[in-house]
Each structure stands twice: as C-alpha cells, then as structure tokens.
Amino acid sequence: MRIVSGIYLASAGASMLGNAVSHIAWPWLVLNRTGDPAAAGIVATAVAIPSLIIAIVGGQLVDKVGRKPVSILSDLISGASVAALILVDQNFGATLGWFIALGIIGAVGDVPGMAARNALITDVSRTSGVTVDKLSAALQALTGITFLLGPALAGVLMSLVSIELVLWITAACSFLAAAFTMLLRITHAAVDPTEDVFRGWRAWGSIVQRPEIKLFVWVALTSGLMVSPLLLVLLPAHFESVDKPLMLGLAMSAFAVGMIVAGGLVGWLGTAYRRRVWGLSMALFSLAFFGTAFLSNQWAVLLGMAAAGLASGLFGPVHTLTITEVTSEQVRGRAFSLFTAINLFVSPIGLSLTTLALKFHTIYWLAVALFVFWAPISMWAIWKGYKVLPHYKEPA
What we know:
This protein is an all-alpha fold. The protein has helices at about 1-35, 40-65, 65-90, 95-130, 130-160, 165-185, 195-205, 210-240, 245-270, 275-295, 300-325, 330-355, 365-390. The chain folds into two domains: about 1-130 and about 145-185, MFS general substrate transporter like domains (Growth Hormone, Chain: A); about 205-390, Up-down Bundle (Growth Hormone, Chain: A), CATH 1.20.1250.20. Helix 5 crosses helix 11 (about 300-325) and helix 10 runs antiparallel to helix 11. The two termini are about 15 Å apart.
C-alpha cells in the first residue's frame, strides 16, 4: 500500500508547484494590468483578513466534513479561481477589484487545503505503513524543491509564453492535485457531522491546553513576527541597494537546499530522538538569524539562509508528528489550521512594525535586532522542549 503515500506526495507536489509559479505570475499580472507598483501589496492586504477568517472556519470544516473531501474541494476552488481570472481578463479586463475578489476566492481554496492536507497525513500513514515523520520529511523536501524550482520555472515560462498560458498551467496543477487526492484509497478518520457548533468552537481552547501545542504556538507567534520582515524587506532591500539581485536569488536557493537536505536526513534517520531534533532545529534557527545579522556580508547571509532551511526541514516533521500524537482525530483539522491562522495574523504585524522601525533605524540595525530578539526565545524554546517533548519515542 506504499503507493498511497506516493499518490499523496504527488498531490502535494502538484499543488505546491502550482502555488510557487502562481506567486510569481499573479503579482506580475497585477502590475501589468493596473500599472501600479503598489497594487500587488493592496491585493495582498485586502486578501489577508478574509484569509485569517477562512483559516479558522476552514479548520472547523476539515473536522466536520472530512480531510479528503476538503482537500479535493480546496484544490478545485484554487484552480477555478485562477481559471476565472484568465477568463475575466480576456473578456472584461482584470481590474484591481477583480484581483481582490478572485484572490479571496483563491484563499477559500488554498488556506483550508493546507490544513486538510496536513491532517490527511495520519490517514495516509495508517493506510500505507509509512510513518508520519517520514511522510512529513518528504513533504518538507518537496516544499524545498518547489521553493527552489517554482520561481525559476515561472520566470522561464513567462519569458517563453504568454502570462495567460502560465496561469492555465498553475490552474492545471491544482486540478491535477485534486485528481491525485481523488485516487487516494485510505482509511478515513471518523467525523462527527452532528457536532454542536458551539462545542466545536470551544474545541480550539482544548487544543492549546496541551503543553506541546503551547510551545509551538509561542514559537510560531514570535518567529512569524520576524521571518516576513527578513525575507520580504531586509534581504531584498540590502541586495537591491548593492545591485546584487543574483545574491538574493542564491540566498533563497540556499534556504531551499537546506530544507531539501534536512528533509532527506529526517526521512533517513527519523525523529525518534524528539528532543534532540527539536533542540537542533532551534539552534539552527539561531545560527540563521546570527548569519543574517551580518547583512552586509553576503557569505554570512548565505550561511544563515542555508541554516534556516535546515532548521525548517527539521522543525516541520517534529511539529507535524507531535500535533498528530497529542490531538484527537476529531480536532486535527483545527489543530493544523491554528498555525495557519497564527501565521496569517502575525506576519502583517511584523511587516508593519518593520515599516515603523525603518523610520528611525537602518535595515542593518534591524537585522541585528532580529537576532538579539530571537536568541533568548531560542534558548527558552530548547529548554521548554526538553521539558514537554519525549526524549525517545518511535513514531506511529
């Protein structure tokens, strides 16, 4: 039954590749049609708040309807939103309002789909016999591969064919992901379609009562404030100021390669020594912020980004495996949606604080400040992890 895990990973890979290409092609089309460099930011901001609401409601939907149906429906909606944008553009002309409306519809597909796919991993593991940590490691490696190849593929396609054809390809990736998920023959977790709505919402409180989940929540809240400013503001601003766009690309590639390597290592060695893997991931995140603190030194930045990729590749499997172990099947979708919602909530806050700080300080000062802020959090997270995570536990 290992073919089940292969189909699951093929679905995830198709979806992630489509999203990676779309993240380049979509802003390009927004700029091309509106002629306003700020338009892409306006669209992203307008979609952010509905996405947060969708993340919360979507988690409830995953647990009430089922992981596989929501995963399929999400990919279909995501592909349909891209197809609709192409048709609107061809027949009426895409305007800022259309981009915002169809972006929100796309979020209806993308956001719950991430939680559904993560929650589905336990069903795939149960059916295929492949452990959750190894499946999660494979997903991390796939994430790294699509992060590495997706933007490059988008650039090549956009230079060879029309932007409309590129978007049709991304829509096809979403439809292909849905088709692969339809082919999955898995042992489903039980769902309770009669669950009382108010009891269902109270389940969110029970999820965060677990000490392991509390640890992950605090790490997600603090790191989420820092990662977006680093990737979206500080690194681009520095490399643009020194006219080295290639180094920006290499820094992002170093992150992707680190994630691929870590995913391969976890797939080979596993995560039985849970505390060690957790502690190593937090230490590598510290090394990452230390490297990027020397923002004017391109080699230190490359080392830092590679360390960040390694850290992410180790963190992901521990995070996914622990959530599946400490939460019940009936709230698994909400557990994964919680972290999607946190990321959607704190990232704009981090970017807003960065914009404010840049009125008083340089990007180089802020890069150092990120490391100073993260270092004690990392030490606390390592200490807390050694208290609440098992020393040795074979994954189910």
